[in-house]
């Protein structure tokens, strides 16, 4: 996420000719639409959808035990590929600072979390640490991105609502201060980076597991798994985006431009995946030995042919239809092809497990396929339940995009003056009169049209005897944070510390566990580790065929099979450290006077005494003397400011 402000534009700025957000979307309308879709009572269509998911769930539960055991790793690998692909897409868009990602960001994060959880319900073919790191990274990114939106839902639900109490707890005291926004942006980028590391590590683990089970040891295997993971994730997101756009009426937030971008993404990665498979076939025909040609024949015409041609005809070739602009820009075509691609790419994981070579009957193949697709009912049920609790599109990031694209998106001055006598951390709606509280220290609350004006006012009031200032906003406020000299350094330190602890703990557990399998326990491990330092000099002409100390069967066969889970453990530790740092920064950032919830959608500057003589009337005159386009507030509230000054 880029460290710069998003000033309001004079005209909507289209991306490749088509806007990425509706021209009528504003800060208030975005919050009203997304919060309303969550807080509104569940309709009949939602109840029917939940009931409809029970059928595939029952099918999955009934056929799960009847399917051959060899299909379990294939199903787990399919869900892992979907989760890794969604996490890679979300993390890369986040680190690249792509502004339009808000339309699909929440979808990718939620899908990654659910897919990683469903993979854990199958016998996983990867190291448990790799899968745990993927699940933890998905959860961390999803929860961190939700923090500002939970505060919006808290304020919209009302103080007496049962949901408001839940959102108040989950939002962890979020009030939108400059320090909180700074910590949130950095934490989201950190979670995105750690998610990419966890996704790449689990895909490498999948490639190593496939190399052990099959005779595929070519260098294109890890590349093909990575490309197909992103392709399957993009297909899943395309299907979900089309469905959500139609069911929730979010055409202004998930626009045709988002669908066009997803279509281009499917086309590009589908072409790359085709290149990997065609290259493998051509290489085997031209340069392969007898074993490689036999494997190719088995794949094209033998027992692996059903899975291979399913992969080609359902998972890869349909993506080439997006060369046609009319199909690429059709929401229905994009959703159907995306779902077909996400399902068809599961056949490659069937190839990786060599199920055809086990002599599985066609009935067993059908049973396992239906059972795996039945587990998709759990995925859909998870989506339906989660999107009844959280908005399906990120409110904060969409507001940020609206301020950059729409000139009229800035918040307006509230019609009724909020009560500014509330104590710290109070949540009070604008329309309800607050109870009389004890005498509070004097202070001012200034409302601005943009973050740039807020930052100019903060600079104008700064000085050696300046009052205590704090900035609040509905979107990230990096410029105001720089004007107030806000700094946040604990996030990276705690993340690195957590990553180091996770890496060291994993290696220590491995050494202790391996020591239990050795004849002399830890002494044998020390002997193996020290053997390179005790080699004779000069080197012998011949080496023994076996180590003097026996090599236990439970030890990994290569350094990569230990290094990859160790990388996953480091990513998991980094996620935990970053989560602790973010919660701590959010609590520190809410210290001082917090504006009432009626102003949560505005750019607000709070002014409080800091030891020097505090004269509110003089401060109000200084603010009103600033130029209208460079720091003059739209309204001032406070005991000394009197009625709102517009």
Q: Care to describe what's here?
A:
- With 646 residues, the protein is mostly helical.
- Helix content is 60%, strand content 3%.
- It has a four-stranded antiparallel beta sheet with strand order 2-3-1-4.
- The chain has helices spanning 27-39, 44-63, 71-95, 102-119, 128-157, 162-170, 178-213, 220-248, 256-287, 290-301, 305-316, 325-328, 331-344, 346-352, 362-374, 376-386, 395-405, 451-461, 478-483, 490-517, 522-530, 560-588, 616-624, and strands spanning 444-448, 468-472, 603-608, 635-638.
- It contains 23 helices and four strands.
Quick gist of this model?
This protein has helices at 27-39, 44-63, 71-95, 102-119, 128-157, 162-170, 178-213, 220-248, 256-287, 290-301, 305-316, 325-328, 331-344, 346-352, 362-374, 376-386, 395-405, 451-461, 478-483, 490-517, 522-530, 560-588, 616-624; strands at residues 444-448, 468-472, 603-608, 635-638.
**Secondary structural class:** mainly alpha
Number of helices: 23
Cα-based radius of gyration, to the nearest Å: 29 Å
Strand content: under 5%
Shape field: globular
What's the pLDDT, averaged over the residues?
81
What are the segments in which pLDDT stays under 50 over at least 5 consecutive residues? 1-6, 8-14, 420-440, 532-537, 542-555, 639-646
Main sheet summary? 4 strands, antiparallel
Could you state the order of secondary-structure elements as H and E? HHHHHHHHHHHHHHHHHEHEHHHHEHE
Distance between the termini: 34 Å
Order of strands across the widest beta sheet? Answer: 2-3-1-4
């Amino acid at each position: 996420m880029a460290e710069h402000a998003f000033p309001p534009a004079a005209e909507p700025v289209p991306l490749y000719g088509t806007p990425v957000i509706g021209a009528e979307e504003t800060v208030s309308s975005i919050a009203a639409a997304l919060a309303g879709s969550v807080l509104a009572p569940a309709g009949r269509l939602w109840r029917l959808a939940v009931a409809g998911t029970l059928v595939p769930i029952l099918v999955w539960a009934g056929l799960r035990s009847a399917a051959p055991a060899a299909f379990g790793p294939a199903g787990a690998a399919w869900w892992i590929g979907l989760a890794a692909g969604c996490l890679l897409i979300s993390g890369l868009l986040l680190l690249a600072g792509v502004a339009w990602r808000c339309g699909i960001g929440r979808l990718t994060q939620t899908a990654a979390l659910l897919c990683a959880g469903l993979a854990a319900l199958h016998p996983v073919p990867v190291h448990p640490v790799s899968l745990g790191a993927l699940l933890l990274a998905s959860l961390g990114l999803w929860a961190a991105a939700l923090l500002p939106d939970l505060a919006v839902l808290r304020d919209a639900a009302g103080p007496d609502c049962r949901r408001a109490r839940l959102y108040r707890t989950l939002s962890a005291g979020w009030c939108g201060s400059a320090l909180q926004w700074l910590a949130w942006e950095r934490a989201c980028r950190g979670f995105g980076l750690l998610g990419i590391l966890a996704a790449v590590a689990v895909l490498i683990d999948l490639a190593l597991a496939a190399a052990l089970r099959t005779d595929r040891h070519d260098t294109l295997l890890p590349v093909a798994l990575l490309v197909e993971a992103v392709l399957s994730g993009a297909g899943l997101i395309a299907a979900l985006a089309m469905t959500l756009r139609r069911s929730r009426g979010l055409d202004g937030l998930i626009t045709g431009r988002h669908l066009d971008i997803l279509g281009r993404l499917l086309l590009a990665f589908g072409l790359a995946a085709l290149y990997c498979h065609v290259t493998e076939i051509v290489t085997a025909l031209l340069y392969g030995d007898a074993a490689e040609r036999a494997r190719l024949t088995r794949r094209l015409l033998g027992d692996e042919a059903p899975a291979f041609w399913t992969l080609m005809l359902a998972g890869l070739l349909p993506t080439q239809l997006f060369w046609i602009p009319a199909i690429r820009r059709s929401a229905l075509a994009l959703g159907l092809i995306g779902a077909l691609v996400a399902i068809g790419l599961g056949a490659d994981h069937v190839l990786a497990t060599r199920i055809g070579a086990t002599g599985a009957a066609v009935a067993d193949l059908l049973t396992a396929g239906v059972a795996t697709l039945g587990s998709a009912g759990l995925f859909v049920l998870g989506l339906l339940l989660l999107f009844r609790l959280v908005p399906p599109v990120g409110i904060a990031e969409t507001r940020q995009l609206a301020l950059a694209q729409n000139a009229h998106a800035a918040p307006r001055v509230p019609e009724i003056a909020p009560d500014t006598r509330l104590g710290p951390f109070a949540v009070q709606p604008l329309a309800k009169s607050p109870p009389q509280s004890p005498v509070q220290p004097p202070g001012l609350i200034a409302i601005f049209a943009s973050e740039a004006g807020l930052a100019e006012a903060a600079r104008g009031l700064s000085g050696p005897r300046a009052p205590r200032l704090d900035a609040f906003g509905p979107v990230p406020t990096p410029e105001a944070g720089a004007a107030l000299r806000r700094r946040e350094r604990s996030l990276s330190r705690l993340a690195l510390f957590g990553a180091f602890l996770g890496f060291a703990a994993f290696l220590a557990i491995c050494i202790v566990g391996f020591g239990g399998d050795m004849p002399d326990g830890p002494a044998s491990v020390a002997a193996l580790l020290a053997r390179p330092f005790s080699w004779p000099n000069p080197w012998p002409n011949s080496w023994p065929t076996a180590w003097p100390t026996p090599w236990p069967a439970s030890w990994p066969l290569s350094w990569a099979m230990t290094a990859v889970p160790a990388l996953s453990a480091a990513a998991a530790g980094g996620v935990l450290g970053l989560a602790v740092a973010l919660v701590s920064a959010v609590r520190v950032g809410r210290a001082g006077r917090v504006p009432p919830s009626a102003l949560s959608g505005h750019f607000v500057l709070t002014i409080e005494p800091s030891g020097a003589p505090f004269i509110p009337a003089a401060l109000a005159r200084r603010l009103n003397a600033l130029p209208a386009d460079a720091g003059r507030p739209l309204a001032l509230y406070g005991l000394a400011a009197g009625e709102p000054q517009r």
